[in-house]
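[job 0412] stage=complex_fold ligand=guanosine-5'-triphosphate status=START
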Amino acid sequence: SDTTPTALRTPIVAVLGHVDHGKTSLLDTIRGSAVSEGEAGAITQHIGATAVPLETISDMAGSLVDPEDFDLPGLLFIDTPGHHSFSTLRSRGGALADIAIVVVDVNDGFQPQTVEAIEILKRTGTPFVVAANKIDTTPGWNPQEGAPIQQTYEAQSSRARSMLDENLYEIIGDLSDNGFSADLYWRVQNFQKNVGVVPSSAMTSEGIPDLLAVLMGLSQRYMKEEMQIDVTGPGAGTVLEVKEERGFGTTLDVVLYDGSIKEGETIVVGGKNDPIVTEVRALLRPRPNAEIRTEKRFERVDEVTAASGVKIAAPDLEDAMAGAPVRVVRDRPVDEVIAEVKREL
Ligand code: GTP
Ligand code: MG
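[job 0412] stage=complex_fold status=DONE, emitting structure tokens
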């Protein structure tokens, strides 16, 4: 079951890109939800988090992802806003990521926040793939619902295919202008050296199997080097939002990126004034495939391991801040942990 602690840390996949290029829609397609439709003007205004289990990924990816090939429990997707005014949230999302997807509207091509996203990933040294999204809007497109890209390519007229190719090569050229050697993903051997471009559609799910397969491959390789990460150590996370929750008062939506957190433990959280020292009253976990931003039926759990999105209920959280660090004290002197939190603010 999904409550069994696994030795491997769930990789964090940040989704970045220009406004309206389809970040939330791609996640909606993967997790089977309609978060984008519920957003005012389809504009994302907060960072989101969704745990997608390996089972969902292999169901979506069909023959391209065999669950037997992977030890990973799944992927934790971080949604970010593309609107230019939210650059702090993009940086925060990028900083959390192990790997990333940069979503580019295949007709619109590179736009200011596409470049901004790539700069963030360059700065943090985060490996990424590019989803060349909305391929279904190519004039004359013949959609193949849920098909891998090779299969849908074969179903297109040569005219539609060459229009798509032209747009894809434009994106590859823009990546190169920004300092990344890139190619269509099936021509890439080393995804840490070269950026793979994956044509996709959130509307028809075409190319989604390919996107998931590339992400799983990249995570597996990346996590191999990170296997030593001890998910049983004291938890470390970042506050996404400070929210009122009926019956719990002020709560924190947190991405736990390292270690574990247990009910009853002492935590230190960055606040408007001094760091807040408090005790975890309840840990509320979104269901698998649920976006923490919109989840209404949290599951109360005793412990959460990284990487996860989790709502933390505790006293005295009124002065907590989005973006602030959260640390579990556990066997350490509390002053040491307070100092650590202060350094990170
Ligand atoms: P921000 O979070 O505000 O940056 O936008 P976003 O990148 O999350 O875009 P979102 O997923 O909200 O999609 C914007 C619009 O594009 C919506 O109307 C979607 O329905 C549409 N859209 C997204 N992906 C596709 C696609 O693959 N094909 C088509 N035809 N439309 C798409
Ligand atoms: Mg969005």
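Residues 329 and 336 are 9 Å apart (CA to CA).
[job 0412] exit 0
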